[in-house]
Amino acid sequence: MKTITPVFLLTALALSPAVNPLAGQARQPSTRFAFRTVAQPGTIIGGRTFTRETVIGSATLNDAAEVAFVASEPSPLPIAVFAVFTSRRIVAREGDVIGGKYILLIPPDAILAINNAGQVAYEAWYADTKEMALSGDPSGRAIFVDDHLASDAVFDARGNAAAFVFTDDGRIIFEHQGPASPAPKNGVPARIRLKLPRDSVSVTAGERRPAERKPSAVEHPALAPFPKNHRGQILVPVNFDSGGFLLLLGTPSVR
Is residue 38 part of a domain? Predict the structure, then answer.
């Protein structure tokens, strides 16, 4: 696998207080990260080849540095089709039938987790029947683990899906306190109105793409809330406005 050290990310992550709380303090060691590329255009996972049109969304990693992420994949449809990947396999994609449920929509900003056993938990909208799936009529929103339905989604007072802890023995523990709230009644959101990936960075380089095809830009990659594991490794998803993406795994070294 190709190893790269992109200067604009390496410098930012090494020096930013958002990543290095010791930055700026005299006589204290500073953290640097050595990056390697997990995925980029041309990467093949599960027979799918990522292209410059691929958009990466939510991403996460476990303590063994195994990653899981949401990304679009080539499709003859005029809208992007999203799937959940690890660095080795396709976990699920829109259109799959999992646990008897028809997967209608995997949001690009789906809540996502991978445990230390390599199991992947992900959020998706589903339909109970083929007829409902063909009509785009959702039955609900749930948390799936690999190839089975684990739990109906839990919602907070604002109607947002509640975050959860995914244990190494495959249990889903919601952070939401109190009784579960019913799913919002507005159904599957229109794709162009979907919230953009919460952990993804957009880097401007050339002509900008239509707004619905890219994450909101941030002032600097170091300001994004990148996923981390207990070993201090960091996962950096980057979408470029000019096309293409990078998924970078950073391993810390102290100097």
Answer: yes
Is the pLDDT reported for residue 108 higher than 50? Answer: yes
pLDDT band for position 210 (50/70/90)? very low
Phi, psi of 41 (to 5 degrees): -55, 130
Judged by average pLDDT, the poorest of 29-38, 165-174, 233-242 is 29-38
**Number of folded domains in the chain?**
1
Q: In sequence order, which ranges of 40-166 are alpha helices (DSSP H)?
A: 130-135
Phi, psi (deg, nearest 5) at residue 110: -55, 145
pTM, to two decimals: 0.73
For residue 135, tell me if it sits in a domain. Answer: yes
Please give the structure tokens belonging to residue 169. 């023995």
Domain span at residue 175 reads: 7-254
Q: Residue 135 phi/psi, 5° resolution?
A: -90, -5
Instruction: Tell whether 227 is covered by a domain.
Output: yes
Q: Is residue 51 assigned to a domain? A: yes
DSSP 107: -
DSSP H helical ranges for the chain: 7-15, 130-135
Give the model's pLDDT for residue 183. Answer: 52
